[in-house]
Design a protein that fits this description.
two-stranded antiparallel ribbon, 2 domains, 8 strands, Rossmann fold, 6 helices, alpha/beta, 21% strand
């Protein structure tokens, strides 16, 4: 099984790798696959037991490569079950880390008319020193508006790794439920 991810600063890749590790521990092979390197075609998606996507949000939208994956998935005649994880800084706030509470995830699901088997939002990582000047200023402004840190040297890991591990457990359960017994 492929575990697709779309990342801007590498944090979604870290989350996808963690999910893949936990799936391996549960006996489920899942290879993280960077959507920025290449997009899977419809045939590749169709033969997966399920499609798992970990997608970063940048400036209020999921990355274009994630949107392309959703467009390919949406066009499938018989799509496998879909699992979505949105990675954004808004999910650091209580209630914004669920499919219902995440405006980004709700909009993605509605816009693409998706019916995910599982969906969640994970808080990302704030790393001002790593950002370029423009990104740093925009993100600082957004943080100012939303009550987050604005110090130019701030590095804050908001991701709940236990929540990532629990989500991986749910994915493993879903794989077992959708894969015919040998």
């Amino acid at each position: 099984m492929h575990l697709y991810y779309a990342t801007h600063d590498g944090h979604s890749r870290r989350i996808a790798a963690r999910i893949a590790e936990r799936l391996a521990e549960a006996g489920v092979a899942a290879e993280p696959f960077d959507l920025g390197a290449a997009q899977p075609d419809a045939a590749t998606l169709s033969c997966q037991p399920l499609v798992v996507a970990v997608m970063a949000v940048r400036y209020g939208r999921h990355l274009p490569q994630a949107e392309r994956l959703m467009a390919t998935y949406r066009a499938l005649a018989k799509p496998p079950p879909l699992v979505l994880a949105s990675v954004n800084l808004t999910a650091r706030k209580p209630g914004k880390d669920t499919a219902q509470g995440s405006a980004y995830l709700r909009k993605l699901i509605a816009r693409n008319k998706l019916k995910p088997a599982l969906a969640t939002a994970f808080a990302g990582r704030l790393d001002y020193p790593r950002y370029g000047f423009f990104d740093r200023q925009i993100i600082r402004f957004i943080m100012l508006l939303t009550g987050g840190p604005t110090e130019r040297t701030a590095v804050v890991e908001y991701t709940s790794w236990p929540a990532v591990d629990a989500f991986a457990g749910k994915i493993a359960d879903l794989v077992r439920a959708t894969t015919p017994a040998a």
